[in-house]
Write a structure and sequence with these properties.
This protein is α/β, with parallel strands linked by helices and 214 residues long. It contains six helices and eight strands; from the N terminus they run H-E-H-E-E-E-E-H-E-H-E-H-E-H. The strands form two sheets. A five-stranded parallel sheet has the order 2-1-6-7-8, with helices on both faces. It starts with 5 loop residues before the first helix and ends in a 7-residue tail after the last helix.
Length: 214
């Protein structure tokens, strides 16, 4: 399955999540690519939108490859292959510090005049534009589980089957539209896959604190 763009994928996800329509779900996007998608899904389901801030930990010499992730509290997830990439304890400490500073700066940028929405007791749907290793989604779900949501859902357009197995034990429910075996990168499943800027994220969050059902 190939999606025209993120908005088309979000429309498909909203259809798959229609049972949550009108139940005031909290739609949390992993920045930056998932934020426009979360806006669409929140509009379709009558929910609120926010971001869950997590960052991947980059492999030495290969910044596109995730060896783990860190959430806003500083909790670190490491993949079982992390040390095979040459990442020793000193490297991991340094990379974690770099990514935590990025998270801190993004929180200041994205929600400067309010705290994050509280997921406690709510239906929480975590959105990303696709999963490769699943590291950032694992960190996001771990962070949110600690805040006792009523239901914790992972919703993505595409992910490889082996990644979904890891995600499945972290969420109450996983919604994934496509699980291709020949998976190289998320972008290969979109015809149009531009970068989403911080300016776009800030604009969406500023205008979407509460969206009515359309």
């Amino acid at each position: 399955m190939v999606f025209e763009d993120r908005i088309a994928a979000a429309e498909r996800l909203a259809e798959a999540l229609v049972e949550y329509r009108g139940r005031r779900p909290l739609i949390l996007a992993i920045p930056r690519g998932a934020v426009p998608m979360a806006q669409v899904i929140a509009a379709r389901l009558g929910g609120e939108i926010d971001v869950v801030l997590v960052r991947k930990l980059r492999a030495p010499g290969n910044p596109e490859f995730a060896i783990g992730s860190v959430d806003e509290s500083g909790w670190v997830y490491l993949a079982d292959y992390a040390t095979e990439t040459g990442a020793d304890e000193e490297y991991i400490r340094g990379e974690t510090a770099v990514q935590l500073e990025t998270i801190r700066q993004r929180r200041i940028q994205y929600t400067p005049v309010r705290p994050p929405h509280d997921p406690t007791g709510r239906i929480v749907i975590v959105i990303d534009d696709g999963l490769a290793t699943g590291s950032t989604m694992i960190a996001a779900l771990h962070s949110l589980r600690a805040k006792n949501p009523a239901e914790l859902i992972c919703a993505v357009p595409v992910a490889p089957p082996e990644t979904l197995k890891k995600i499945g034990i972290k969420a109450d429910r996983v919604v994934c539209l496509s699980t291709p075996l020949n998976f190289q990168a998320v972008g290969q499943f979109y015809l149009d896959f531009p970068q989403v800027t911080d300016t776009e994220v800030i604009s969406i969050l500023a205008s979407s604190s509460q969206i009515s059902i359309t």
